[in-house]
Amino acid sequence: MLSSDRLCGDFSALGVAAGQVVLLRSSLSSLGHVDGGADTVVAALRAVLGPGGTLAVPAYSPQNSDTSPQYRAAVAGMTAEEVARHRAAMTPYDPATTPSSGIGRIAERVRTLPGARRSAHPHTSFAAVGPLAAAVTDGHALDCLLGERSPLARLYDLGAFVLLLGVGYAKCTAFHLAEYRRTGTPPRRSYRAVVADARGRRWTEFVDVDVDDGDFARIGADFERACETRRGRVGHADSRLFPIRSAVDHAATWLAAHRPATPS
C-alpha cells in the first residue's frame, strides 16, 4: 500500500520541485496499490509542487468527434439508422462537464479539482490547476489541436517539465508540438466535432495537422540517448522527468529527418 508520504518522497527524488510547471501523463495502475487512488497521487504531486507550482494534463474528449478512432469503433457494425441515432445522441463539448477519455484516472481527477481550468478545444483540451492554470489553458484555437495556439505551446513558453508517470514515450504528448514545428509542411486533414454555442447544438469542421503518435516511442528512445533526463521509480512505476523544450526541439529535428513532409 503506497502512502502519500511515500509518493511525495519518490516525486522529490525524481526531481519534481516546488514552483515547477509540470505536464503529466500517467498510469495509475502502474504505481501499485495506492491508498486513496488517484486522489492521493494528485494530492502528493501538488504537495511537492507547492502553492507556486502548476500541474497540467491532457483532458481529451474524442467522444465528441465523428473523425476519431473511438467514433469509428463505436459505430462499427451499426446500421445507417443506428449510426444516425448515435450521432444525434452525442453530447456537445462542455469544458465544465465533458469527461476526458483515454487519458487515465489521474488526469480525470486533475480535471475535476476545485479551481481547475480547462481549455476550449472539443477534441484535445488540457486541464490545469495552480497559479499559471489560466496562462496554460486560455486561447486554445479550434483549428489548432496541439500546435502554436494550444496549451502545449504555452507550456513550452513557460519552461514546463514533462512527467511520464508509469507510461513510456509513446504517450509523450509534448512530441505533438514538434509535429507543427518540424521543417516542411506537415500533412493536414479535416476534423469534425459536435459543439454547442449561441446557435445551439451543431457540428463544426476544421482543418489542422494530421497528428500521429505512431513513432513517438522511437523518438523517445533517440531523445533519451541524446539528452539528459531524470529517471526513477514512483511507487512501482518507471517514471521520467525532463524539460519540455529539449523534448520538443529534439523531436522536431527527428521528425524532419524521418517523416516525409510537403516542402515549405
The end-to-end span amounts to 54 Å
Low-confidence stretches: none
Largest beta-sheet details: 7 strands, mixed
Kindly report the average pLDDT value: 96
Order of helices and strands: HEHEHHHEEHHEHEEHEEH
Overall body shape: globular
- What percentage of amino acids are in beta strands? 15-25%
Determine Rg (CA atoms, Å): 19 Å
The strands making up the biggest β-sheet line up spatially as 3-4-2-1-5-9-8
How much helix, percentage-wise, in residues?
A: 25-40%
The number of domains is 1
Instruction: Please state the structural category.
Output: alpha+beta
Number of strands: 9
Protein name: Aminoglycoside N(3)-acetyltransferase
Enzyme class: transferase
Keywords: Acyltransferase, Antibiotic resistance, Transferase
Family: Belongs to the antibiotic N-acetyltransferase family.
